[in-house]
Amino acid sequence: MSIADIIDSLDAEINRLQQARSILASLAATSLRAGTAIKPATKKRRRTMNAEARKRIADAQRKRWAKQKGAK
Fold it and tell me: What is the enclosing helix (H) or strand (E) of 5?
């Protein structure tokens, strides 16, 4: 294979890649206009506990701490 043949095949490949890129770019532009673009994930809301649940958990933890202190 001569250098001229290699250059011709490279030019042909470059042309095919440029055509594929232009097609993909037009598809991307169309989807952006149509509003079908991927939207970023929404931030998850943190769960909240009511006062009664917080009190139960705090009391249980105090009980564990007291048990731990008593063991020493």
Answer: helix 3-34
Q: Who's near 24: CB < 8 A, 6+ residues apart? A: none
pLDDT (tens digit per residue) in 13-70: 999 999 999 988 888 777 666 555 566 778 888 888 999 999 999 999 999 999 998 8
This model's pTM is above 0.85: no
- Is residue 1 within 8 A of residue 7, CB to CB? The reply is no
Residue 41, SS3? coil
Residue for token pair 């249980």? 60
CB-based contacts of 37, cutoff 8 Å, min separation 6: 31
Place of tokens 């294979």: 1
Both structure tokens of 42: 């929404």
